[in-house]
Specification:
Blueprint: H1 17-21, H2 37-41, E1 47-51, E2 57-64, E3 67-74, E4 80-82, E5 93-96, E6 101-106, E7 115-120, E8 127-128, E9 137-141, E10 149-154, E11 163-168, E12 174-176, E13 184-189, E14 195-201, E15 205-210, E16 219-225, E17 230-235, E18 242-247, E19 255-260, E20 265-271, E21 278-284, E22 289-295, E23 302-304, H3 307-320, E24 325-331, E25 337-344, E26 347-355, E27 360-366, E28 379-385, E29 391-397, E30 407-411, H4 427-434, E31 438-443, H5 452-456, H6 465-479, E32 483-493, H7 495-506, E33 513-517, H8 523-528, H9 538-544, H10 552-558, E34 571-577, H11 585-597, E35 603-607, H12 617-634
Parallel strand pairs: 30-31, 30-32, 32-33, 33-34, 34-35
Antiparallel strand pairs: 1-2, 2-3, 3-4, 5-6, 6-7, 7-8, 9-10, 10-11, 11-12, 13-14, 14-15, 15-16, 17-18, 18-19, 19-20, 21-22, 22-23, 24-25, 25-26, 26-27, 28-29, 29-31
Length: 641
């Protein structure tokens, strides 16, 4: 969010094949005791801490009737006030809009038509600020220096595009700032909250539009193909023509640069890593200096640009240990009080309050104090080579106290697919490891962060080379002697669900069991049912996935699992949210119907009050209890030869 300190998770690369073989002496270790599904997946007692702008109050989410609601506490006091009472679904997020008023986000049953609500810190004057059916709200600028207003984007005029509005957080009154002509997909303000940038697309080409003042018309700065990135992060501190930006123009790996919008030229490269893209750059609004740059290899890494920021993180490592990764999640306007998150691969993490005046670092809460980190498994960075010579990075998590030989394995491809897996605590992975499974995660081609060429190598490769990267990871595990080739399962959500279905249709003898969670089954219907606000990107999706109106249709049919159910040998469990706007229920329904029409038994879990993933904890409990029962039953069905 604008004008708040931005701190991204970043990763440090570790050479890996050797890592998989470096295990503690098993004679000194015992298998971990079984931890319940509920302990892995229940809501935290306290999470998502935030500081009020004046630094006098802190807020957090905590359960009320099993739903995560906002609570507020004056710093130094034990009195806590619950300020929201939502009972149907956890809040999706919140922030302090002023010293007295908080704004939170919620949708209905997972439909992702998010409404903005505001409420006073004492729980009074709660108001739906965007009470429009079928409309999605997004924050453009929280206007840190304006306690009465926000700038938001709403698609209430045209479902496909968002117009920017100035919104009063007390009354709900709003003023249209600019009417979207239909091709603007994003907006950006300067440090004074002035609307200075607009981002335009024709589906495959992206244009940055700029104006020096709000009284002037927007003018084109640069147009690039979507494969090229120039992404302004924030304006220089004189609010002139220069921005700090992430850019891969003329390079494979995205770098942080300074870019002159008026002259349309890069004027300085600040930092570029040789192996991965930068993730972003943080800054201090009060001191008006850039602080550090994030980039993700295997673990957290930062390039510091500011001594104060570097000293702060050095202090955290000294006091809390170097094995954690640290984020500053919130600060007051004076930047003398901070909320710190610390976590690693074996704990869900903890929050701390740091006061620079007293240099006191106070522990606030553990997110899952009921989980013993000594019983959790290490998440080891690994790499292997694909059949066509690409290096694929990933993570391998082995069950505690068990020799890494002939283990049952769950292969867990990530969603997106243009995303990536990161190092850190993953309750799904730890749950499976706790039940005796090795878990393999891989950043197959197309995963973000590894440069332009690696990303582009995934285009129109769903179910093909992208899937081969997953298969090659399984074969690597078998060759290393870690995996029992007769006890391998595949599980994923969203694109990972698609990869699950593609895995059991493309390589039916490789997997004993499969779990598809809100996954795509049919590339044709998936493209037809995207949300309306994805429409401006449809031509881009045609280039990245396939155009059903061209000869790509042959390729898309070949790689749509619903048309190949006759090949499936693995047991299959499918889970779906009825209100999912991204991968609609029909994607799972048609897969289940095709299987049943083919005489194949499939287990199907449909949650009527969920969307793209299960947010309500009772649904998570149901899903993971059913999933582990399914895996335990079906991973034993193959008899070793």
């Amino acid at each position: 969010m604008k004008k708040l300190l931005l701190f991204s998770l970043v990763m440090l690369f570790i050479a890996c094949k050797e890592e998989t073989k470096k295990q503690p002496e098993l004679s000194k270790m015992k298998p971990a005791p079984k931890v319940s599904v509920e302990d892995f997946f229940k809501n935290s007692e306290k999470t998502s801490f935030r500081l009020s702008p004046n630094g006098e109050f802190l807020s957090y989410l905590a359960p009320y009737k099993d739903r995560m609601n906002i609570h507020v506490q004056k710093i130094g006091s034990d009195d806590v006030k619950r300020v929201t009472s939502v009972e149907d679904r956890d809040l999706s997020g919140y922030f302090w809009a002023s010293n007295d008023r908080l704004v939170y986000v919620r949708d209905k049953g997972g439909n992702e038509n998010f409404h903005l609500f505001a409420v006073n810190k004492d729980g009074s004057n709660e108001k739906d600020l965007t009470p429009f059916d079928g409309v999605r709200a997004q924050i453009i600028d929280a206007l840190q220096d304006n306690e009465a207003e926000l700038i938001v984007g709403l698609n209430k005029r045209i479902p496909q595009v968002f117009d920017p509005y100035r919104l009063n957080i007390n009354t709900g009154e709003m003023e249209l700032l600019y009417e979207n002509p239909g091709n603007i997909t994003g907006w950006q303000t300067d440090h004074d909250g002035k609307l200075r940038l607009a981002f335009v697309t024709n589906g495959v080409d992206n244009t940055i539009m700029y104006r020096a003042t709000e009284d002037e018309p927007f003018k084109e700065v640069i147009t690039t193909n979507f494969k090229q990135t120039l992404s302004p992060q924030f304006f220089d501190f004189d609010n002139g023509d220069v921005v700090y930006a992430a850019s891969n123009l003329g390079r494979d790996k995205a770098a942080i640069v300074k870019y002159d919008l008026k002259e349309n030229k890069e004027i300085e490269e600040i930092f570029m890593d040789t192996e991965v893209d930068v993730d972003g750059i943080s800054y201090s609004p009060k001191r008006e200096v850039p602080t550090f740059i994030n980039y993700t290899r295997a673990k957290l890494n930062r390039k510091f640009l500011d001594k104060d920021a570097e000293n702060l993180f050095a202090m955290l490592e000294e006091k809390l240990g170097a094995d954690n990764e640290y984020y500053i999640t919130s600060s007051n306007k004076e930047e003398d009080k901070f909320l710190i998150y610390a976590g690693n691969d074996k704990t869900r993490g903890s929050y701390y309050f740091y006061d620079t005046a007293t240099e006191n670092l106070k522990h606030l809460a553990d997110l899952s104090p009921w989980i013993n980190s000594e019983h959790m498994a290490s998440m080891k960075p690994i790499s292997y080579t694909s059949r066509d010579g690409l290096t694929i990075h990933g993570y391998l998590t082995l069950p505690v106290g068990v020799k890494a030989e002939n283990l049952p394995v769950v292969v867990n491809p990530h969603g997106g697919p243009w995303a990536r897996d990161n190092w850190g605590f993953n309750p799904e992975v730890q749950f499976l490891a706790n039940r005796g499974f090795a878990v393999l995660q891989m950043n197959f081609r197309g995963s973000t962060g590894y440069g332009k060429k690696f990303w582009e190598s995934s285009f129109k490769k769903w179910g093909q080379e992208m899937q081969n990267d997953i298969t090659d990871g399984v074969q690597w595990l078998i060759k290393e002697g870690i995996a029992d080739k007769d006890r391998i399962a595949i599980y994923g959500g969203s694109y990972g669900g698609y990869a699950t279905l593609a895995g059991i249709t493309n390589t039916p003898d490789l997997y004993a069991a499969a779990v598809d969670y809100v996954g795509v089954s049919n590339l044709f219907t998936f493209m037809e049912t995207i949300p309306p606000y994805w429409e401006p990107y449809k031509k881009m999706l045609y280039e990245m996935v396939g155009d059903p109106n061209t000869k790509d249709s042959i390729m898309m049919k070949q790689n749509s699992p619903v048309f190949h159910v006759d090949k499936i040998k693995a047991a299959l469990f499918i889970a779906q949210g009825a209100n999912d706007p991204r991968v609609v229920q029909a994607e799972s329904d048609q897969m289940v119907k095709a299987l049943r029409d083919n005489g194949v038994t499939v287990e199907y879990m449909l949650k009527e009050n969920e969307g793209h993933g299960f947010r309500n904890q009772e649904n998570r409990f149901d899903f993971y209890n059913s999933m582990i029962k399914f895996l335990n039953t079906n991973m034993q069905t193959k008899v070793k030869g």
